[in-house]
Amino acid sequence: MIDKKNISIVIADDHPMILKGLNDELSASNYNVLAQAANGMQALEAILTHNPTIALLDIDMPLLTGFEVIKMAKQKAVDTKFIILSFHKENEYISQAKTLQINGYLLKEDSFSEIEECIQEGLKGNIYFSRSFAPSSLAIVSEDLKKIKYLTSSEKTILKLVAEKMSSGEIAEKLFISIRTVEKHRSNIIMKLEIENTTTNALTNWAYLHKNVIKEL
Fold first, then answer.
1. Which of 97, 193, 196, 208 has its CA 20 to 30 A from that of 36?
2. Domain 4-132: what homologous superfamily?
3. What tens digit of pLDDT does each residue of 179-216 get?
4. 0.90 cut: is pTM over it?
5. Which of 86, 127, 132, 131 has the alpha carbon at shortest distance from 104?
């Protein structure tokens, strides 16, 4: 096990009490807290400046979300392991986390001992999700992401536009193709993603729900 003093950490949350509490707990446990950030831009700057071992980030922050911070930091090829600490339990957030290949996703209701467990697993290169998540939810999200990978580049382009709630006519006009071609792509997407086509808006509803993941395709 790595000495805690050698584990450098940047923490970010726009709630002052949560930020202070997290800092106090980590410092008392001998972790090396390098910086605290109250918004996403501060968090990104701290990560790029210090290249910490771990970054503990909230999702909903001013200027940049935690996910945006992670995406931008990864583009700079930092060595930091990323852990989300949030109130969000919804599948769309789990999907985003998995798409970004983060190292951990914890809930703010979790104990500090679980935060430490997540940190240790992240340092081993493992991915840790809060024990509060139902295994079935994690499995469903994983299957959805696998299915998306089966789409062709053209189908992914169509899906992105569907997620923006564009009609088949609007998509056809934008891509300079026929409405019939768009409808064929939509049909193939529904089949590959195994979406229950019970309503005319089934694909639109699915795409909008997963829009934050789809835009990363």
1. 97
2. Response regulator (3.40.50.2300)
3. 999 999 999 998 888 887 766 688 888 887 777 777 76
4. no
5. 127
